[in-house]
Write a structure and sequence with these properties.
Strand content: 15-25%
Number of helices: 15
Distance between the termini: 50 Å
Strand order of the largest sheet: 1-2-6-3-5-4
Order of helices and strands: EEEHHEEHHHHHEHEEHHEEHHHHHE
Oligomer: single chain
Structural class: alpha+beta
Shape: globular
Helix content: 40-55%
Length: 409
């Protein structure tokens, strides 16, 4: 493993895996949805799509044909706090693929003529989510809990997409696509010295510094919102404060989450679905946006049983503070986590992405061995600390369905 910071601020991470035949690239660029102006939310999504419409001397068609001829895959994504440009290819094609990636970042064509079709496609996605009540509930919950700009939908909004101009889009590219604050992660069948030299040739004279990300502000007290939706089902979604990667209890929180939501043996599944038949789906997950960690609770139920479902969820979560977490539960949770971490390390793409994300969030790498050890080192006392800190009074609850619940904080 090699990490080097170039003079322009770009972080290069090279993770050679000799038994692989592929190489994956993950380039993180600071920015994302938070870079949109308040009245043009979604402009960053348009930019993300435009990045795939040609680069350098290659038109949209030329670019697509060249990628196809290499047998490679290149794609890009937009998150709240970053853009991610990714690629995977046969190791002998790395030079050509990394050149394409550098062109997409540094000299994208961004054809204005494609604006209308991209907007229409994104608007259709916004309409489509209205037919998925669970997705809609989670999207609206995010808007309830977080303050701007982290309360935005990752689909953008209709008004913002309509108002976004070509100048808005190119302005985001000008502000965000800079080396200082970006991370290029390579993993797979690569020689460290060769990969580092190639990266320097393609990105070494890239200049500029990305804007700093805004800090996250969340709801500081309990809040509840209901959204009327014509359905026999009721979606119950909850966000509670959690832990980020830097927190000493982060891995304990992962184990706690696994105890609560571990497939057929998770406490929530057993108590909410198996014993009482209250919900067709229920889970707890741990999440991080920028430097903020949070728990997400979700249950899909019926209007008549929504209040009881929420009560049982709260009871299941809070009873874990009574010291009744068993050694078997901890062992199962740890084994499940270690399996997930190990399987995720078995592909070049997963390794490249994980290395880039860890550096982006932590400013350092976490190897598989380190993460497995951190999971092993989690104690019952640490899990108990996490359980006791779960605070429904500091969270947000959203229901989506035929009628609101009568809730007290």
């Amino acid at each position: 493993m090699k990490v080097e910071v170039l003079d322009n601020g770009l972080v290069i991470i090279i993770d050679p895996i000799k038994e692989f035949e592929s190489v994956a690239c993950s380039l993180i660029i600071t920015g994302g949805m938070v870079a949109d102006l308040p009245d043009t939310v979604g402009a960053s999504l348009i930019l993300t799509e435009l990045l795939n419409r040609g680069a350098g001397d290659l038109s949209h068609i030329d670019y697509a044909e060249f990628v196809d001829s290499l047998g490679a895959r290149l794609w890009q994504e937009c998150f709240y706090d970053r853009f991610t440009l990714s690629a995977i290819c046969y190791h002998r094609r790395l030079t050509d693929v990394l050149k394409l990636l550098s062109l997409k970042v540094r000299v994208p064509r961004l054809p204005e003529s494609e604006l209308s079709s991209i907007k229409n496609s994104l608007l259709q996605q916004i309409e489509a989510v209205k037919d998925s009540p669970s997705d809609l509930a989670l999207e609206r919950l995010n808007a309830l809990y977080f303050n701007p700009p982290y309360n935005r939908s990752l689909l953008g909004d209709s008004s913002g997409l309509h108002q976004a101009t070509y100048e808005n889009i190119t302005d985001i590219w000008s502000r965000c696509f800079k080396p200082n604050g970006s991370i290029l992660s390579l993993a797979g069948k690569i020689a460290i010295d060769d990969a580092l030299q190639l990266s320097k040739e393609l990105f070494g004279d890239w200049q500029g510094e990305a804007e700093a990300l805004p800090e996250i502000v969340t709801a500081t007290r309990w809040s509840y919102k209901h959204i009327d939706y014509n359905s026999e089902q009721t979606q119950v979604a909850i966000i509670l404060p959690g832990y980020n990667l830097e927190h000493p209890l982060y891995f304990a929180a992962l184990v706690y989450t696994k105890i609560m939501s571990n497939g057929l043996v998770g406490r929530l599944f057993i108590e909410v679905r198996e014993k009482r038949g209250l919900a067709y789906s229920v889970y707890l997950s741990d999440n991080i946006v920028h430097n903020y960690g949070y728990f997400l609770l979700y249950a899909g139920t019926t209007a008549d049983r929504a209040t009881e479902t929420l009560d049982v969820i709260k009871e299941t979560i809070t009873t874990a503070t009574l010291g009744n977490i068993t050694a078997n539960e901890i062992l199962r949770a740890k084994n499940g986590l270690k399996t997930s971490l190990t399987l995720a390390s078995q592909s070049a793409q997963s390794r490249a992405v994980a290395n880039a994300k860890h550096w982006f969030k932590l400013g350092k790498l976490l190897t598989l061995a380190e993460m497995l050890q951190k999971v092993n080192d989690v104690t019952l006392d640490q899990i108990q600390q996490v359980a006791e800190a779960v605070d429904f009074k500091s969270g947000s609850v959203l229901t989506l369905g035929g009628r609101a619940l009568n809730l007290d904080s």
